Amino acid sequence: xxxxxxxxxxxxxxxxxxxxxxxxxxxxxxxxxxxxxxxxxxxxxxxxxxxxxxxxxxxxxxxxxxxxxxxxxxxxxxxxxxxxxxxxxxxxxxxxxxxxxxxxxxxxxxxxxxxxxxxxxxxxxxxxxxxxxxxxxxxxxxxxxxxxxxxxxxxxxxxxxxxxxxxxxxxxxxxxxxxxxxxxxxxxxxxxxxxxxxxxxxxxxxxxxxxxxxxxxxxxxxxxxxxxxxxxxxxxxxxxx
Length: 241
What we know:
Layout: H1 10-21, E1 39-44, E2 55-56, E3 74-75, H2 86-90, E4 98-108, H3 113-122, E5 126-140, E6 147-157, E7 172-174, H4 185-194, E8 200-203, E9 213-215, H5 229-240
Parallel strand pairs: 1-4, 1-8, 5-7, 8-9
Antiparallel strand pairs: 2-3, 4-6, 5-6
């Protein structure tokens, strides 16, 4: 009696690769230490957990990829950075770095909108509005409609930080997406112009911007200039006219 040949499926092809590519937090603790400082502006891009959900294309369908001779395409946020569930994100002591009067700008996606509001509230903030809508100019398949936008929500603690800079920053941004989870710099540039004189920090940062403190696992040494102090001062003076 001969042994039957094992059945090859898309799952058997992509699952080992998915396990190898998953990013793991290298720290003993869940988070690095937060700064011993208070900030009036906090900009966060939480590493939302999507329950292991991955994106595929037709290469995982055996009738489209006969014998799975081509590599099976898979994509997941967890391949790019260690993701965290809502309860884990709520453990981050953001209240310890938030000034009495503070604005929180938080990136989110459609599936994470409800969790985003819960997270902001657990950090001591009140949800106020959608500050930015990013049209990525490309789309992903969605269960309901095509997924082509992301959002930055605005939360407030205490009073609105003053003095206020630019008031003409656009809510709707249309820029072609780059690498996975890479956000358009025009957003942080706009926030910088809105609050040119306040202490600012980016949480879960993967870039290092001039005029900002930052915190995260993957921060490069080199500073990036996004907007000049002169531009900020000009926007501030225009507001005062």
